[in-house]
Design goal:
This protein is of the alpha+beta class. It has one domain: 4-Layer Sandwich (Double-stranded beta-helix), CATH 3.60.130.10. Helices cover 22% and strands 25% of the residues. The strands form five sheets. A seven-stranded mixed sheet has the order 1-2-3-15-5-17-4, with helices on one face. Strands 14-6-16 form a three-stranded antiparallel sheet. The two termini are 20 Å apart. The chain binds 2-oxoglutaric acid (AKG) and fe (ii) ion (FE2). The site of fe (ii) ion (FE2) has 4 residues, from loops.
Length: 289
């Protein structure tokens, strides 16, 4: 995939095809040309790190999201408290950790396409975040296994991670997602292999955070298959690891990645603010033309 970028947008790829660092732009003051280049670069590189955005606050982060797509509620069920409803605040002093491999919010019918994360408070060291390239992982499976996983469907269930939050909410009412108030985390089915709606590339679309099992196989087979897929997805050659600096913003494509936030900074404080952009219902190889 070739991407044309305006000259001021300096792109440094972090590997052969996954992850790139971007310098030379101000996310609060983007030209239309820069917005277009960011969109294309994000689909091509899957995770982007934009440095030096110290001036960005929640409002400007949300405004930036609106330039790229349709901003959703911060989370389907998490109460955003005293931050804007579009922001999902992960605060280590409030149990906000993400130390399990996952792709954001795959337990709903239409999971967010893109996430935009801003470092608000960082520990002196530690707290790195790592992303996995689920398309590269799919492409590097053996052909026989690829053909088999193409046929599978998985169940995603948000109850283990987020059922508690929904139960705490007044009258069990979560936030508005896809135009409806979330009142239950009913498990949903998604194809195990997702065809990216923009690039047409296939990627693994299962994750340990939310995938409960593979449908229509025994529990034993489901466990074994998922273990193989997770071990493969998180092989070092499929990963980029980001060491956060103040002013960093990360953007990633949830249609082609998974991620994991290290919880290795003891009781030091770490706060991250995330927004998400609306996505489509995942489509598998069998439904895709
Ligand atoms: O805290 C982080 O670095 C990542 C948290 C996370 O999983 C997310 O923002 O979606
Ligand atoms: Fe996440």
């Amino acid at each position: 995939m070739t991407v044309t970028t305006p000259p001021q947008l300096r792109l440094t790829p972090l590997g052969p095809g996954f992850g790139a660092e971007i310098d030379g732009i101000d996310l609060a003051r983007l030209t239309d040309e820069e917005v277009q280049a960011l969109r294309e670069t994000l689909v091509a590189y899957k995770v982007l790190f934009v440095r030096g955005q110290d001036g960005l606050d929640d409002a400007a982060q949300i405004e930036f999201g609106r330039r790229l797509g349709e901003v959703t509620a911060g989370h389907p069920v998490h109460d955003s408290g005293d931050v804007a409803p579009e922001v999902y605040a992960l605060d280590s002093q409030d149990g906000g950790f993400s130390d399990v491999w996952h792709t954001d919010v795959t337990f709903v019918r239409r999971p967010p396409a893109i996430s935009i994360l801003r470092a608000v408070v960082l520990p002196p060291n530690g707290g790195d975040t790592t992303w996995a390239d689920s398309q590269l992982a799919y492409e590097s499976l053996s052909p026989g296994l690829r053909a088999y996983v193409d046929t599978l469907t998985a169940v995603h269930d948000g109850n283990r991670e987020f059922g508690y939050y929904l139960a705490q909410r007044r009258q069990g009412r979560g936030n508005v997602w896809d135009g409806e108030v979330v009142t239950a985390l009913t498990p949903v089915e998604h194809p195990v292999v997702r065809v990216h709606p923009e690039s047409g590339r296939k990627g693994l679309f299962v994750n340990p955070g939310f995938t409960s099992h593979i449908a229509d196989v025994s529990e034993y087979e489901s466990r074994g298959l998922l273990d193989i897929l997770y071990a493969h997805l998180t092989k070092p050659e499929h990963l980029v690891r980001h060491r956060w600096r103040p002013g960093d913003v990360a953007l990633w494509d949830n249609r082609s990645t998974a991620h994991y936030a290290n919880r290795d900074y003891g009781d030091r404080h770490r706060v991250m603010h995330r927004i998400t952009l609306r996505g489509d219902e995942p489509v598998g190889p069998r439904e895709s033309p």
